[in-house]
Amino acid sequence: MVFIGMAPFADAKQNRIFHNALLNRDKRYDGLVFIGVKTTGIYCRTICPARKAKFENCNFYRSATEAELKGFRPCKRCRPDAIPHSPAWIGTQATVNRAMRLIDDGALDSGSVDDLADRLGVSSRHLRRLFEEHMGAAPHQVAQTKRLHRARNLLIETNLPIIDVALKAGFGSVRRFNHCFKDQYKMSPGLWRKDRRGVGWRAAEDLVEPRGIEPLTSTLRT
Ligand SMILES: [Zn+2]
Questions:
Q1: Same fold: 12-81 with 141-200+211-219
Q2: What is the pLDDT of residue 111?
Q3: Is the pLDDT of residue 216 over 60?
Q4: Distance of CA 191 from the midpoint of ligand 1 (Å)
């Protein structure tokens, strides 16, 4: 899109609305308007966390391309050049998808975010930023949620002792598991299991290990 010579979003009232969206970090305008700040030469998305420019210092554009054609550089904090569904964004989504598969396989149960980033060929800082952008959470938080979900399934579907649930779900220790579980669900894993099963739960000997759950030894990580 090229708008050279054309006043972008010339409607002053409309521009006030866009500026308010910037002040309020309004997601609804993300991707619809790009704000070029004349004093810095940088353009932003409405959701940018950086300090807000005054209305009189802002230009409003319909696309990242338009802002760049006017000589503005993309902000490093809100990355207007990589907004959802742009080619750059789709490229980074692929990296996040690969990371998610590795996390599924336990990459962050024993390894670090640095190791994971290495395997993906990106810096850990970049990986953290991509997760923030695509998942709204840090890699270790995503891994933690996955461990808790695995643990919940094991608590409901098997009769394994808590320590085995902890290790199979990918927690390094039962202590760590108890801590994380209580933090998230406000009760101990044992109590939660009882609560979920309620009255009439089958006796332990009736339980059959569900498919897809391997013997404990194979999932123990050193
Ligand atoms: Zn910005």
A1: no
A2: 93
A3: no
A4: 46
Report the DSSP pairing between strands 58-61 and 34-37: antiparallel
**Residues pairing with 37 in the sheet:** 42, 58
**Ion ligand 1 residue ranges (Cβ < 5 Å):** 44, 48, 50, 75, 77-78
Domain boundaries along the sequence of the chain: 12-81, 87-136, 141-200+211-219
87-104 helix and 113-120 helix, angle to the nearest 10 degrees: 120
78 is catalytic: yes
Instruction: Report whether pLDDT(96) > 60.
Output: yes
Q: Phi and psi of 172, rounded to 5°? A: -70, -30
Q: Is 58 a catalytic residue?
A: no
> Domain 12-81 class?
alpha beta
Q: What is the pTM of this model?
A: 0.58
Handedness of CA 51, 57, 60, 61 (dihedral sign): negative
Provide the CATH topology of domain 141-200+211-219.
Answer: Arc Repressor Mutant, subunit A (1.10.10)
